[in-house]
Queue: 3 jobs
Job 1
Amino acid sequence: MAPAAVIVNGHGKEEVEGFSSRKLNPQDDVHFDPSLAPPRYQIKGTDANSKILFENVNILDCTGAKPYTGSVYIEGERIKHVGEVPNIESIKKLPGLKVIPGNGRTLMSGLGDAHVHFSWNNGDLNGLGGIGIEEHVLMTAAAAKTYLDSASAKERLDCVIRDAINNGSIPGPRYLANGKEMARRDGELVPGITAFADGPLEMREVIRHHVKLGVDQIKLSMSGEAITESVSLPKKRSLRVLMRVIDMASDYVPTPDASILHFSSEKPILTAVVARDSILWSIKYGVDIIYHASYIDEEGMDLLEKRKNKHIVAPGLNWLYGTLYEAEAFGYSNSKAESVGYKKELEVAIRGLREMHKRGITILPGGDYGFAWTPHGTYARDLEHFVKLLEFTPMEAIISATAGVAKLFMREDELGVVKEGYFADLILVDGNPLEDITVLQEHDKLDVIMINGKIHKLKESSKATVEPTMALAQETTLTNYIAYKKDGKFRIGHLDQGSSLITPLSLASGSPVRNLYQVIEAGADSLIAGGEKVRLETVELQPPLSERDVLAIGRNYAAHSTEFNKSGYDASSKDDQPTHPVVFTKRATSIVASGSEILPLDHFTQTLDYEGEIGVIVGKSGFRIDESNAMDHVWGYTIINDVTARERQRDHKQFFIGKSADTFCPMGPIAVPKERLPKKLQVQTFINGEKRQDGDTDDLIFPISKLIATLSEANTIRCGDVIATGTPAGVGFGLDPPTFLKPGDLVEVKVTGLGTLTNRVAALDAHNYVTAQLNDTHLETYNLDISCGGVGLRQINNNKLLNVTESGVDTGEQIVYVHGLGGTSEYWQPLISTLQLDNSYKNVMFDLEGHGLSPTHAGSIVTIDSYASELSSISTKPSVLVAHSMGCLVALAFTLAHPELVTKLILVGPPPNPLPQAASENSIKRAAAVREKGMLHSGVAAAVSNAGTSKNTKASKPLALSAVRQFLLSQDPEGYAKGCTALAGATERIDLSKLKMPVLIVTGQEDGVCPPANAEAYKGKIQDCKVVVLEGVGHWHVTEDTDGVAAAVKAFL
């Protein structure tokens, strides 16, 4: 397992006392690309109401300032006051306050480590790959706790443990997770814990895989390791891999291959390098964190100094020291360590690291912990080595392990120092580490360990007036449901109203929750946190529910009913109090989210008014519901502003027209289950900060149970229906004089436990955004879900989306590939890999409309010419064009229309020209069959794979046959059917004599679509044409005989 950066937890003087040329906080000069920032993981479980006071402590704030005596006061997760605590005597009287007497002990930031392996077992690394996953998880969790007490060999172990710590399930430090180390096949430390990659293509796939697992950073092992006797200069292919990966990271532009480039622009890259050239290449190609860096030479040192604002070095010093002097007890002798070069490496490393330190290069502790002689729990030894071997002052060593590691997390604004507003990650030390740095290695001297404002360890002598507080996190109830849109996708999350952070929610299965209907159906117990938190201001807020008209109640508060009756706007009744509920509806198009503008619609009304209301959300459908059990049908509540055009309400003698205008039903911001709210709810409305309305559910004329019974008396109410329960007195027409809303007015409706619904009245010239947002199409887009709604697809002519993939060398000659009916762009990957075409060509592949990852709209008519039009938008410069099966017809249509863009043409298994009538009719029948029964049960996948492959393939190449079947079974039935109809239309002869470029035709001896005679017929009509026939091959040539096709293509190119 590659090491993880950890922190239990600058600023400061510009120069070190006695070292006038050296900065005390060199990490302040490091400026990583902001796009590399890892997620700001939060550790759950700290009571927001927690209050802890450290008194009379020696504050070592880790900024470089001299320690001073004072107090530190903590509220919840963060430090509130440092030094002098205002009103300290009043604070001491607060209920629940925990006071820890410092008695002069040192209070400092928790220590961090840049290079530790939680998933390594303090023993034989060769056995890690064979440890059962269950046992390995427990072992890794124990190592994480050991780290916390002190201050991955499987792909997902680090990620699982990181997430468990952050969820409060297990104790542990703040943590950035890696996956396996990545190395070439003869450069690994231990095979069982290494992910292998021998070239850029393989590296891309390995990195993609690890990004999907959720790692925070990527580690490349470049130089081997002396203990495996594999340390060496980096081989050229290792350097090519490094160059390729870093190029992708630093030269990111949106391209069809965005899955790799997008990853590379967001994950820090680390290298484990010992050899001189490896170090130099890591610096030249922008590696963010360089581990070991033992054999750096003058050229590398000068370059590193020049670029010290971009790099951090974590040398693994304790590994070298321990291997040389302390490994003998574990069977690795000192003489052996010397003979393989550890003594020399340690000496060279010390000289190099001292020089780096003098030049202001940021060096962080990270002793490669997790080996037998660098066991978990001894992490602070690095600080002793920094002082005794590298000539750090104790203050410099401490800063490197606190503020320095905070820089590695890119969270120096909230971690690593003892400062107001920072996270309370602290240790209380019985001793002075500035006088004796080794005191930090003595666990019994660490009297208090705190992370995230929660006490993990509390030594008996420190308790005094303190209650023990270390317990697993209390479960956070994720029931403040908020609907939002981010990156084009609708989600439901939990809104923390204090921090304005949204936790995306998923079902327990992991499926994202997309709307509140799903929440109601699944129930709160079936929902879990489903992703990283996002800030409220970064999303597009949606109303909790918006697909149906709102069922609304008028005149349901006594005082409002009276004021309405006297206003002159009530045309419904002359009585002050209604005898039956007054029911109307608000059209679904009137519903907008909190934060959206209310359109003034001055052509429609001059009496724009507000009505703050409590919205009831129905949780269970019903008909003729008895009032006695009506509340069983209530799921929860939200806030509604029943905006009204008063003169329209009056003139039309009913409420619908005056209350259903666009934007006249703001709703939200959240919806909350009734179990999470008090029985009595208060509703208040404020206009520009002035309170206008104030009422509660006890004031309702008709209670909610009566409303549900009335509404369901002859109508079925449905789960997800919303009932607006009426508004209290204080609306605009009830004021003296009547005061209506005008552009710029801010309307805020507050309800107990539901937050504040906030909307501003728009300017008079505001456009109607409701109309613009409507999606009135009912024509389906097929095959869109497979790309999560089109993520990563390229938009071409007429807004069509296609999956386009590019690889190889941008400056090389371009090759464009067109797959056939039932295939995808992946059909060509074996050919590209076998010929290593990425090393010298730019390769462009795409999925035809409806195939692979490319969607197709129901109204889109697909033909050979429409496919060729897709190709025209992709291939815009002279290229080699390679096509298979039906793709050959597409390539020919494109070539005849744009001969200047095709330098060479390779046709693999081209169909007859023209397509015989019987074949055309059969293709139409095949389209109808897959539309009716799909690819499997129509028999099409089986029939095509059996007929399209040779006897030899079926008899002795089961993987090839299975690959063909998988191509077919993975197709969207509608996309495949459209391809069949496109092929069926290819009944006109193509004039092959117009082809002037060199042409290669490859077919199989048993190809039923393009038998050798068909290939020869093509050759007879083409000026410069060569035919290659592959023995024992059917129609799926690349899948059945990659080497044969590769040989023919190589000779032709």
Job 2
Amino acid sequence: MEEPRKHQVSLRGASAKEITREALLEKVNQERQLRIAAKRANAATLLIQRVWRRYIVTKKVAMQYQQEWETSLNSCMSLSTTNWISTSVLRPFIFFITCLSTKHRRIRARDIGCISRCFTMLLESINSTDPRKNFCSMTTGSIEEKSTWTYQAQKLISLCSLILAECDKCHEGGQKIVVLTSLALRLGVMLTDPKGWKCVADDQYNLQDAAAKDLVLFMGSYKSGLYIAIRKYINKLDSQVNSSLHTDEKLLVTTSAITLALRPFHVAHFDVNVPGKLDCCFAAEQYCLLVLTIPWLVQRLPVFLKPALKHKSVLSPCFQILQVSGNKILAEMSEMDQLKIDQSSKTIPLAGWALANIVYLVAGTENEFVDPRGFNIVDYASYVHVMTILAEGLLDKLENRGWTKMENQEEICVPYLDLLKPVCQQWHLKKLLTTVSNINAHLLDTDNPSLKNPEPYGKLALLDIAYFYSYILRIYSTMNSTMGSLPVLNMLSFTPGFLASLWEEMENFLFPVEVRRLVDNHLGKSKISSVRKTGISEKIPKQTNKDKWGSVLNKFTGKSSTDVGGVDCQPESSQLDDEKLEKWDIEPLRCGPMGISKDMTCLLYLFCATYSHLLLVLDDIEFYDKQVPYTLEKQQRIASVLNTLVYNGLSYNISQQSRPLMDSAIRCLHLMYERDCRHQFCPPDLWLSPGRKNRPTIAVAARTHEALFTNMRLDESTSVLSFGSVITTTPHVFPFEERVKMFREFVNMDKVSRKMAGEVSGPGSRSIEIVVRRGHVVEDGFQQLNSLGSRLKSSIHVSFVSESGLPEAGLDYGGLSKEFLTDISKAAFAPEYGLFSQTSTSGRHLIPNPAAKFLQNGMQMIEFLGRVVGKALYEGILLDYSFSHVFVQKLLGRYSFVDELSTLDQELYRNVMYVKHYDGDVKDLCLDFTVTEESFGSRHDIELKPGGRDTCVTNENKMQYVHAMADYKLNRQILPYSNAFYRGLTDIISSSWLKLFNASEFNQLLSGGNLDIDVDDLRNNTQYSGGYTEGSRTIKIFWEVVKGFEPEERCLLLKFVTSCSRAPLLGFKYLQPSFTIHKVSCDTTLWASIGGQDVDRLPSASTCYNTLKLPTYKRSSTLRAKLLYAISSNAGFELS
């Protein structure tokens, strides 16, 4: 129903349509807005017409003035007095040139002639010795004349700048514009140099000098447009030119332009020894912003101009203005980047070009930088500070821009990074370090108190150098897609004393000086505990300071120094003392990167990146015997710092800003941990200490680990370090036993998921039935199981066929499949089979045979053996074999370096180290970059690098030879085989599970624990059958005999029963099937029993069921003798 109509009133008579009051007001308002808009449009139209009429009239008047000017100039040349030049020549000239050219920032071709005539007349006037005819004599006249001269001179400078910006052969004026530019810059040079004015009188020189100085200061400001013009001009020059390619006119123009650019610095009379307020600050700011950011600045200019550009009178003001107003200048550079004012600077940010140009100017060559003839300590300090500011600005632009996604990156970056090569040279860093030492020496000079409080830009410390090189490292990593930061790291790693100084600086930040002094005063000397040696001389390190590090840490944790003993590198019992753990947990790093300052972050990043690079090439002789660059005690300190930092950084979910630090710290930590695993130098407590209180439980850790890797598989592009990364990145903070339990938890979780997916639905379901001949275990297993892939996780039911071809009786309830896996690994891993060989080291570990690729199905067989090992790990079956450290490293996805060569071939390692440390000329050894391999009786050479046969090993490239040889033996040669084995292994065992362990722990996981067994643990987890009980007389005698065995004999007993000589890692509780002793009744004659004669039968074993078949012996001597004979006969079931 419609609402009742409101009372409406018509204001325009009864005949008009009635409307509401609100509608009426709205209509009136709209009409008012229309009237206002119309008035504004009319006003704008009138303004446009007025401006246009003014422009037309002004242009006509200017053109008329130009014609009259040219006419008067032809008729009045003889009246060239100062007053006539100023009033009749320059005044109209400036007017019509400003109207016709300057305002439009363009020089017309028809104006070139009149400009040339004017400039020629002015040059003749300035060169006149008659004060009445010399234009510059106005600077000594009345106030009005001085003001007129200043105004006209400034206008002329602005015009000269415009002409310079237009100097291009592509200009419509052609070659004439080049000649005009040369003339204009000559005039600019003359106007700003009072020494060139011929009319200068001695008593009036100060007035003229002041006028010229004011003009120069104007020239250095942005109003003159000089530096913008110079930038445009130099950008048009070829970046690969030299002085011989310049024409005379171009050379004159270029030289004059640089002269004008540097004149504000020279006129200001800046004294670097008396730092103060800069008279040329505006010029310095414009110069830094517009000239130093020119791409390839030095390369575009003649070589003889470089000394002028790098003079201290120019660079020192620039350095100071960049330190004072660095943020402002960087912001303006960023605005210019967004405007893209230069086509050549679209790719590299302007801060990058400023950085490269200054580096090339200051440190272009070693002689220029090391002995600069006037480049004093203050300048070196300012140089480092400025480089740091620009490098930080460049890095910020690169990271915000997403540099890695840019096209043609290599074409752009490689030439640019060549300009930064000086900072990658040792002489560059050495000079800076020497400067730091000199400054410190000056500060300690009691005879010169003025040096106690130098200006801020005069201070230089190691921290400043660290900031600079940390930014340079990240710049190279971002811009160099092929080599990354390798050139910088090579230099930093091998500069003598740098790493030692860096660590000392870090200690000053991490630990108060007072605490360390207290330690030095109260602690004596002691020896470091012995460290295991592998292939290194048994030399005992000299006496070192007693565990100062532990005492320092105890000061932080509140414990007394009496609780701390010497550093013991030998493994301790599983019951870890919490105090021993806590002393390796560094308190300042307990919040990760979030809890440390920016300075400490910089030092840690540079240290981790540099030291991790050095660790790659540091061999065991240097690390353990010579103990360079640090003693083993300091190595422990470094490991504890990295361990605490990484663990807590991952625990607190690091930010993106801390990512570079964490990446370098993780890399360095892994290298130190892997070296310790191979050759121990740290106590086990150290690695466990950060997670002693807050590490998650086994179940939580396992599920977090699996969830993290699932997410990474779903989205490989994102890899955010978080708390879940603790398990994957630093698994060593969990005790080995916990990680083994974690591994079994992974297996159980996988079995549950397979059961939920229907792969396992009940006993015997989805099982694999195979028939294996006793004499062809490997061949039959390969033929029937190789194609299964990951389905090999299912149960295997094995039926054996005897040597005579008859099926063996019995059902497989797990024992036969265990026996099958044991037998196939025993046969296939035997060196006689040809797939694997043994290393020449004392451990005789297994490694793929290079000749395996020539065998039939050789690579497929190695892949199949990977599945066999994976199946054994999956089912918890121990195999009595150990793989080479190098081979396991490949399975764990880790690269091997020269220090690991000793684990593969001791003789080769000694030979390589002999070459590395050879004092004479390596050429005498007659080596080249090849390695000789022998296969099937024939020998052939393999090149270690392209052209290796023709490359002799010299002192210069011997390090390259050493690492090329190690890389071939440790990585290239073994890689195809390890990849094949890895494919098979990861069909059964997830690669993420393997990353919980190091190489040694992987072998323990595969073959069991220590080379002895816990008799009490075995007795508590033993089952009895056939009539035996724990209280049986024979059983009691048996355990007494086993306790009396030597460790080797107990291992033989275990191998006799289970086919593996080592106990399960988590104890015999986890042995599957359980250890069982079965009673074997033996009939004896009545007279034998009366005479006390014992049973003659030998013990036997059923390894498939882990069962010892023990006759009922009555005497311990008989049991011991029979048992030793049986376990030493290398037989088991056959003894039955």
Job 3
Amino acid sequence: MSNKDLLPGSHHTFQQIKLDEEEQNITIRGLRRSLPGTVLYYLLVLLSAGILHIIDVWLNFLYIRIAFRKVPLAGAQFIQVWQYGKHTSLEKTTSISVNSSLIIRGFLTETKDETDTEPDSIQSNILVFTFRHYRFVYHPQTQLFVPVSKWKDPKWSHGRATESSGLSLEEHGERLQLFGECIIDIHEKSYIRLLWEEAINPFYVFQVASIVIWCTEAYYYYSAAIFVISVISIATTLVSTKRTTRKISQMSRYTCPVHVLRSDNWVSVDSKTLVPGDIFRLDNAQFTVLPCEAVLLEGDCIVNESMLTGESIPESKSPITQNQSSILQGIDLAAHTFSSDQSRHILFAGTHLIRVRSARSIYGSSSCKDYSTAMVLRTGFSTTKGTLVRSILFPRPTAFKFYRDAFRFIGVLACIAILGFIVNTINLHRLGVSASRIALRALDLITVVIPPALPACMSIGIAFAASRLREKGIFTISPSRINVASKVAAVCFDKTGTLTEDGLDLLGICPAVDQSDSVGFSELCPKLEHVPFSGKEGLPIIHALATCHSLRLVDGIPVGDPLETKMLEFSGWHIEEPDDSSNRGSTTNNGASHEFKRLTTAYPPQQLQDSGYDTGFAYRPVSVLRVFEFSSNLRRASVITQTLQQSNVFTVYVKGAPEGIKTICKQDSIPPDYDQLLDRYTQDGYRVIALAGKSLVDCCSYSQLESMDRSSVENGLLFMGFLIFENRIKPETPSSLDELREANIRMIMCTGDNALTAVSVARNCHLIASNTRVFVPTLLLTDSCQSDRNTSSEKPQENLFSINSSGSLARIRWNESAGNSVGLDPLTLEPFAIDQNDALATQMARELANNGRYCIAVTGDVFTYIRDNTSDSTVALSECWKQLLMRGAVYARMSPELKAELVCNLQNIGYITCFCGDGANDCAALKTADVGISLSEAEASVAAPFTSHSKDVSCVSELLKEGRCSIATSFGCFKYMALYSMIQFTSCCLLYVYNSNLSDGQYLFIDLFTILPVAICMDRSKPYRLLVPKRPSASLTSKKVLTSLIGNVVLVIAFQVALFFVAESQPWYQKPVPTKPADPDSVPNKCDLNSSIFLLSIFQYLFTGAIFNIGPPYRQSALRNYAYMAVIVLLLAFDLWVLLVPVNGFLTLFGLVHVRVGWRFVILGLAASNFALCYLGEQFLFPLLAVPLAKMFRMVRWGFTGLVARLRGYESPPQCEQHGYSAERNEIEGAASNKGLWARLGHRSNRKEYKLLLEKMVGGSSWY
């Protein structure tokens, strides 16, 4: 969360704040209540019988404008929050009394030096307010509100935790006021409050107004039915809302007793009183779930974070040491997540403690005892768990065309209603109808044109889709994203655990051995017996296998990274964790005592020792003294070990990516065929891990060992060999990816693994087609850059390559993954023969350039390098960057941050992107993607909008199918409801010609027994079994949707009007006349015209539902929707019965008159003809007319905008483009200048950039 720049001053009445968590901006404004304005407002509300208040609840401007006045933020009683340019909420400020230095020093933008002047300690009244559980505090120096989550104790900025005596009671009291209670408490609204909020919803207010109008026109039965349905709907909503809120509250609210250090004494308090900076104990029998977010200070623990990350593997947490002060300094408490290096020390709120181990504590008066302690960092809704709960309560709005166009279309219907209101008012006045009757008729017409059930009918399709997904084990915290899934054009997959199995099988070891004159590899050793006991310079590989890990024991079982588990299993050794009494104390040969803390000790298998094997140095127990956890930037992990019975022998073992390990090893220990062997195994799809080590000769004390930094430990190593892992592809992966390819959906692998391994796996799982060639880059560095890389330790990888705009320090070489005869131009990515004299290579390059069937595998360093070069804004580099995004099929050696950046860049060129991962290190990418799917056992996690219990990627195609089905259902239901309103609107307008109308029974039958069942059953259609290349439209204003809707509206209106004129020409026809000649209002509804129009319209309602209930390619055939077919058949049979074999009961119920038998068949013929024409038009004619009509509309818009431009005096093209009048036309004409006007009209300027790039690419999307 970050604050936008505003200069400090005392007169700021507004402020802009960016919520980084939601990537949204809010604007706040200071207000103070005006007593005269408040009295005036409530007087107006009283005079309007409360109507003014209801309108103000919808529009949110009258109350604030009348009852409040703008004031500086410093004196605000209320804070008005604006979002997306409109009022969002009005929040009351409260005043807290705290020391001003707590605010000033806690919100410093830069770390102050110890010698900086302390701010004056003055007790001040500070304003705070809360918006959507974000808490903001007024800063007395900047005179702006800042998020409380940005507060950071000055000691932490210097790498120090809270003092060993803990917080004082005074400090705790002030911080409790500032941060609030450490609890995620959701206020549950009462039933009365929920009822009021639901009752003043515009939908129900419109219903109430409609019921009043209908009752005045004696539609009592229909009014009663709608009233009962509305009451049931409100009651259902209230119960559902209350149940959901209570469930979320129960899930989020948690308190427990906790031992906390206050004023040098350990006291037991309720966890809700915890504040940032509190020191508390984890070794508490009643303490199983973390109530806050904290950094581990002493001891170690293992936690289950599946609720937050979706990762089911327990995570080991280690304490920060004195040498890791940068961890505490670098923590950004306002950030949603922490870096991987920080997360291994952070205990997240809501996670379960599996195991806690104590250590000698320095905190409290009894500092000689063993405790496991942690320091509170964040509390309440500032925690990661609070973020999850907030995302459920306030889901991020989806900028989706469908929802925007739906409201626009409702506005169009409202315009039609107003037009009908005017025309019929004139007509009824001509007939002499009373003013009150005219008003009722006109208002009744509005209730007909704008169907109140439209929003509900459109959203019920999403509800059915979410229910079906839940049955398949796919859960969502954002149902609106289901419709977004219909437009997904690119899917990014993590590799390990997503496309491949979670576990790895260790195929064997390729150890490095001394040969006659150099170092070389021995043959692959598939079993432990084949591995040399002692490796390079006495470094046993078996020690590296048994110790180079961060595994911990839970109930005697090692838990942690599956790769490390396989390493330990292959070694045959087992690990033990010493108890506290045996974990301290070691004496060297010279008698010096050293406090070596052993994390774990690896012991050889007893049976090997008993079987007569050499039990010398290689099979002595080894203790792990220090662990450098895996870093995604460095791509390696390491340990410092000590061999038992040889207390003065310390050894470093490192494992990691072979490319990285090679740079930190001595060159004379690297075999000449290092790269060749690596390429051989990676091209076969194996995962290769490099091992290296060295002996520490200058370390003799624990303090020396603890003070060593990572760069000095992981340097000057001896290469020991390769570990070859086999990562099996999940059985369901190839078929699932084949289905996505058939749908022309671009698939991308995004992994931290080696590029060649990723390419091989991508081919084996069908992510890359068999006839598509893949090119892999190599970033060639200068010597200076190489040395920087060798000496770098914790620097992020993306910062290793310096960029020089005048002369780049590095260049990229693209070679084919399976050979070196063809390369790619570094700028254009076009194929060329490396050896121009090689005829075969030249021919191959020419073919690739012509058919475009090639893709690239991008490594993280190349991705970063080109990205940074693109910032120079040269056209060539910008095009290269776009080509890299368009041609990339595999992105390897990508850190979690780079994965999220890739997704963001794909979105920038127009891709609706899905990301599917295991939820562990993919959280950032999952949240960035339009549709994120976490493969997890959690029902809802903060990692992604969707969570799948299925551990394979088949959930992606299931979600896309449901998304397409849902959007097609919403479109069909929308068009059906719109056409239903136009049919009924036309019927009423024709009857209004004689001041007649439909009867009570007719309205009841149409709305409740025809429209509602058909609409609900339409929404129950299931998705089609196949994904097709054509994605459904998301715009209700698209040419195909509008052509279909307008065409069908014209046809149904034409047939009703034709019936009207044909009926009036019949000799037996009697026009509706007043029963009382002196009273024009006495025209009865029961007449020949009413009966004829009603009998035709009931068939129109039925067959339009059949026409718009589209089946394939997005939904199953309507014949498979058995509920829908049953409703259609029953209603059709009933309608035919009423038309052809009328009985007196039905005639009385519907207010019909007897019509001649011949006329009945005329109505049936008109209904059948109307159905045939609508069906043929929907299937054949309207799609053909869509493009010509779109071009005509575009021509009219060009002419109109050009006319407006000339009227405003914008003559020159630059002036027009500056004001947006001819930019579209100029762009289209420039893109198709060699074509005629009609052809140019077919080009749209708002096409997504990736589609334009695909058209420019040779072969387009054929490579995927």
